[in-house]
Amino acid sequence: MHLFFIRFLISSLISSVLIMIILGIKKIFKNHISARWQYNIWFLFLVILIIPFIPQQYLDFSQLNRWSVDLQNKEDHMMTDDSLLNHKAQETLNQEGNLQDFSISVQRSTAAYINFALISIWILGCLIYTSILVIVKLRLNKVKDSIRVLDDVKIIGLFEKCKRELDISKDLIVGESGLVYSSMTFGLKKTYIVFPLVMTHQLSESELYHIFLHELSHYKNKDIIINEVMCFFQIIYWFNPFVRLAFKKMRLDREINCDVSVLQRLKEENYIQYGKTIINCAEKQIQPSFFSITTSIAGTKKEITKRIQKIASYKVENRWMNIKSICIFIFIAILILNKSAAISILGYENKRYDFKATHVVYEDLSSYFGEREGSFVLYDLQADKYAIYNKEKSITRVSPDSTYKIYSALIGLENNVIQVDDSKKGWNGQQYTYEAWNKDQDLSSAIKNSVNWYFQEIDQQVGYDKLQYYLDEIEYGNGDITGGIRDYWQESSLLISPVEQVELLTDLYTDNTLFESTHIAKVKEALKLEENNGAVLSGKTGTGMINDKEVNGWFIGYVEKNGQTYIFATNVQGEENTNGSLATKITLDILSDKNIY
């Protein structure tokens, strides 16, 4: 739920802009859109409201707009100098004690508290509006209990005639109640058309005919179901005035659409009489509630005025009008789909990898991970076969943390920021929490001690554009370095899945990449950890820390044994005490049980 509501607000803002665009298009082309399509366009508005809750991997219409950068990055990395960050050391040791993974905690307190406060207010608002809806429905139940079913043969006959005209076969209940002030239609399982007491005897046959056609048009158009959907979204988006405005416009267009449906069945000389019927019903209408869970021929004075104007200017819609209407509808639909990824708040960071390997065996290794979430991916290079634990987590992208330093080193070598025979960088005298950092470093010591400042200097000297180029070329995870050139790889914008880690290491090991062979050899030398019974273990750990809690642990690397190479990536996640040390232990236990190392 981290920053969920902040993202929801951004999504809601984008949705609001699209709503205003829809309103603008409808107004500009109002003379070129039929009443039916004026209403149909609002279904695209409902799509806009749904999209934020559809995971982005299912929205393949466009890529996330670059300007819509995750607010998490800005908050997490306001303090870029290591001396301003809270530090905590985590040491990962193998049998020879030659691998250390020092991690730095990033702080999310302000954003987390703001997000918690906002989401609490939102939930409170949802509960309040849900309570209002419950009250409205309880009142409607009282209306239902008070209904007296009409038994006037003449009226029922007229009603059945209208049903036949609209090709409606379902049994509907027609009655009257002293708790309603105008005719209305409601009910999903049992549908009721209800009149005020004695109103049916006060109306002429033509007026009843008009009302029946109008209310049955609502039923035929599934407007009762749409009412329920509208109520749901009014609760979710209670804070958004543009959504309320759009629903108000949608209800008016719905009534106009039903008016036109009735007019299409009347002779031209009866149009005026139909308008008078609407005015007559409007005089009995009370102020509508916030939630509209019924459909009615009546409405507010302003709405009735607009409907009468439409009736007065009504002309039979021709084929050309329908063609134009459909074209405008398609244009708006394309616009919405094109922006769908920017509206989505689920999968906001492109957090899944499309893994297409065929030689894969999925295993249950949950006993190694205990109560923590995680994944283990093992690739047998010679057999070209994957063994994977936790399919979903294996393709879910998370921060690489210090495992990214492998590629930072390669990019630095490629750009001559460091050299194969001279990778030394001088310490600037700044005191760090870890004594191992407070001295000059070369690539080997920087990898061994996971020295942040060493790789941050490399990245800064390489520059943003070149970093982005290399990450795009090797297809490193989501390739997003918008979190800042110093910190994008530590619980920030850059994300990668365990499967991708293995694929990239495979390319690196087999020299199937754009990096020079001598540079790859230099990095592989720095990654070598130990040798045990003829098997050589190489790798790099990573620990992600947020608010001084270790929440993300990595161990990636490979084992060379008897001419065989096994490439692995382990990721483990938890609320605390989840680090590279734990990932290393899990990995070594699994490799040992598989007789690999």
Structural commentary:
This is BlaR1 family beta-lactam sensor/signal transducer. Belongs to the peptidase M56 family. The chain is α+β, with helices and mostly antiparallel strands and 597 residues long. It folds into 2 domains: 4-68 and 114-147 and 207-343, no CATH class; 349-593, Beta-lactamase. It is built from 22 helices and 14 strands. Strands 1, 2, 8, 9, 10, 11, 12, 13 and 14 form a 9-stranded mixed β-sheet that branches. The chain has a 5-stranded mixed β-sheet with strand order 3-4-6-5-7, sandwiched between helices. A hairpin with a 4-residue loop joins strand 9 and strand 10 (385-389). The protein is elongated and about 100 Å long. The two termini are 39 Å apart. Residues 60-97 have low confidence and may be disordered.
Unreliable runs: 60-97
Given the helix and strand composition, which structural class is it?
alpha+beta
CATH topology of the largest domain: Beta-lactamase
Biggest sheet statistics: 9 strands, mixed
Give the overall form: elongated
What's the number of extended β-strand segments? 14
Report the CATH architecture of the largest domain.
3-Layer(aba) Sandwich
Number of DSSP helices?
A: 22
Number of domains: 2
Roughly what is the average pLDDT, rounded to an integer? 85
CATH superfamily of the largest domain: DD-peptidase/beta-lactamase superfamily
N- and C-termini, Cα separation: 39 Å
* Fraction in helix: 40-55%
Q: Which CATH class of the largest domain?
A: Alpha Beta
Keywords: Membrane, Transmembrane, Transmembrane helix
Pfam families: Peptidase_M56 (PF05569), Transpeptidase (PF00905)
Protein name: BlaR1 family beta-lactam sensor/signal transducer
Domain Peptidase M56: 9-310
